[in-house]
Hints:
Number of domains: 2
Bound molecules: magnesium ion
Amino acid sequence: MPVLVFDLDDTLYPELSYVHSGFRAVAAYLSPLLRQPPEMLAAGMVAEEAAHGRGQVFDDVLRQHGRWSKTLVAACLRTYRQHLPTLALYPDAERCLKRFGAWPLYLVTDGHKEVQARKVAAMSVPTHVRHAYLTNRYGRHRAKPNPHVFELICRREGVLPTQVIYVGDNPRKDFVGIKPLGFRTVRILRGNYAHLEADAAHEAHRRIHTLDELTEEMVAELLAS
Ligand SMILES: [Mg+2]
């Protein structure tokens, strides 16, 4: 039986919703310290992220209130990474996981392993997939584009790479490592990379705008190609 594998961030849920969930946790932590309402602090962080990205958000909020220190920035970062996020799957992701509910489904995601594990748990991903592979658990060098965990999936299911489809959003790393081995790939055009033009090696076999486009017909066609 063919195997469907999904990326997590910006494929199954909007990654920015995790960032905002983390900001709310940090705002709650800083609120008594800065004597400001948490909603106001969180709104400031959301605005700062939208304007300049997430790199300096905690430095900025502390500086604005005259409380910047290395220790407090580190405490914010820890609060952010350790918070239990409130997240929801994209509605089309929810429908897709249900539609292919009888198939062998897997998840493959890079990133901080505890953070990714909390995201996976928050969205009940384990109820949908046979296993969620957090590449970080196998060493940093096993992050995408390294094909290691994809090979583990083949072994576990007793299938060839040509029977496995990976759905991801990031043409920089999601497809380039596994395509030469025969894995089939589908790129979902959303998130930060939606508008990135990729060369032939980095581009997926198919491009879709929502997971509703991933049908049994499309899968059959992809596997036959
Ligand atoms: Mg992604």
